[in-house]
Amino acid sequence: EKVVTWYMSSETYHSKFKKMHSAYEECRADTTALYLSHFKEPYEIMFSGREDEWDDIQYVMWYEVARRGLYGLSFYDVETETWGQAHVNGNYVIMRVLYEVDG
């Protein structure tokens, strides 16, 4: 499908996504880190000499994002339907995707 809409010259990412822009950014940052955790290059840079721990580090990364998603529920205000922090909102979204995906 062809692109039929775009930002106007007076619009920005922030102006279009309002309060959600920070959560989108946090979600993007965390999913990028999770994606990169499947390649050896980041480990070679950050954990050189600890090759026997790389699988554990990757496991803990995924586990921690899911845990923060659950923890983030304590920052959700049911009355105003808002999140207290962008980080936890992003982690909650990732946790929900992990919960809903098959396999």
Automatic annotation (TrEMBL):
The molecular function terms in GO held by this entry are: dipeptidyl-peptidase activity; metal ion binding
Provide the coiled-coil residue spans. none
GO CC entries? cytoplasm
| Superkingdom assignment | Eukaryota
This protein's UniProt keywords: Hydrolase, Metal-binding
Metal-binding among keywords: yes
Question: A Pfam family matched by this chain, by name?
Answer: Peptidase_M49
Q: Give the protein's recorded name.
A: Uncharacterized protein
